[in-house]
Amino acid sequence: MMQFLEQNHFIGIFIALCTFLLIGIFHPIVVKAEYHLGVKSWWIFLLCGICGTALSIYFENIIVSICFGVFGASSFWSILEIFQQRRRVEKGWFPKNPKRNK
After folding, report:
1. Global pTM?
2. Which domain covers residue 54, as residue numbers?
3. 7 lies in a domain?
4. Which residues of 24-49 are buried (b: 16+ CB within 10 A; e: fewer)?
5. Structure confidence by residue, pLDDT tens digits, 21-63
6. At what angle do helices 62-90 and 42-58 cross, to 10 degrees?
7. What residues have CB less than 8 Å from 59, skipping those under 6 apart?
8. Measuring CA to CA, which residue among 39, 46, 43 is closest to residue 72?
């Protein structure tokens, strides 16, 4: 598959698609994490970011490496987003979990 992508110059489009999908998946994950766990879930995103970054260094395949790198970066970015999501909930833009105290 890698050879096909390189020969036909589709590797950039494929990586862009993977990046778009990975980043898009993180938005609902952040919303659900804040709803169920609150901002104390930030450390989960930190661990995922470290693992994703480490795996991106480990793999030699450029596509796999880039996808893990994007996963790691998205996980790190989600740490910021989880705190911003709390503010969105406080403003009433997203529902607050009635079963959870701050």
Report:
1. 0.86
2. 39-91
3. no
4. eebeebbbebbbeebeebbebbeebb
5. 999 999 999 999 999 999 999 999 999 999 999 999 999 998 8
6. 170
7. 65, 68
8. 46
